[in-house]
């Protein structure tokens, strides 16, 4: 649909490991990984990842991953269900980590570790601990944040806020980091750090949202935990449930398709809705989103190997949803937009990355295969916008020209629970919450949801951070 079910099947890892591709990669000096075993995702059957879609674009991308990185990691395998997006993601991440920029390479990886640790994402923490050492980072820093230079430790507060409550970031936080002194940041360094932090907070959402398994070399190492908390051990329903469950799932698809068509034809639109009513609907949706609980699973216990990179580990979005506490203050999107403000500020202080981020946002928003579950020829733009705007809604961002009544028309409660969980407390994502929404949709369509979540979440946090930078500069 927005959402995948790509028309042709991408070459899977089995084909990649076929003689020709394997020799091609090995001849160019790449290390071809051993047999996958359980597969890249705890939520998606390996066979479906290998079979879903297989255009030459994906085959070539996986070979490029082998050559440039020496491996095809599990994020790449799952994200590769959408080759167009993967290509854009890679270009951006490559620029952030490997190309010229104000920050030295080892500090970039350390910032990635700090960001991933806020969500207890041992997968990304372990990945970047290895990368940190490969580019010459000091092994002592990996004992914990207390062993890192004060300049990096000073990022802890803004890291915490951007991960959990970005609306609290102010120009005073920016001013404190830029204050002249031995441990001060330059404006260009800080902007790169802000992009890295928001990138890895959002990528942690993708890792948990898609149930990304540890790499084989991680699995035997430092006590890596699975992406889903162990507390949810009850069996999850299958996506393609038979019997009554299967009929109910088909009926859900048909009802969603009908609502989608009615919205597009204007039959569900109300005449003469005032701006006041539009604002009221947003506030109602924002308030109701606070009542959407992530799950009944107890919080996973943070691992010491991750916790050592975190200050104030109890701080989180969940504190904001307690009964009696107010919702996030509303950020009117028109007052500080990515297109008119954020994009130009980043491009001025960190050349080229603004263009790549803009491309990545646009690819995620416009990506479509015109399919929805078993239906073809479907325009899913209204549904994609509802998902994007709902993510922004839970972070307090309102679009004046959007009717938030559409969110309730198109997003069932189980989907809202999934979106809220993955966007706000991804470490609480379970296989059950993944399987309970859109039971008749393809896994690749659910991965597409996660791409929208990743990019909407990143853009929301970036807007708050860049607005604070702008206020500091003016």
Report what the structure shows.
The chain has helices at 13-16, 19-27, 46-51, 56-69, 74-79, 83-98, 105-118, 122-134, 150-153, 156-164, 171-178, 187-209, 216-219, 243-264, 275-289, 304-307, 338-349, 353-366, 381-394, 405-410, 413-424, 431-435, 443-473, and strands spanning 331-332, 371-372, 375-376, 397-398. It is mainly α and 474 residues long. The strands form two sheets. Strands 1-4 form a two-stranded parallel sheet. A two-stranded antiparallel sheet has the order 2-3. A hairpin with a 2-residue loop joins strand 2 and strand 3 (375-376). Helix 6 (83-98) runs antiparallel to helix 18, helix 17 packs antiparallel against helix 18 and helix 17 (338-349) packs across helix 23 (443-473). The longest helix is centred in the last third of the chain and has 31 residues, at 443-473. It is globular and about 60 Å long.
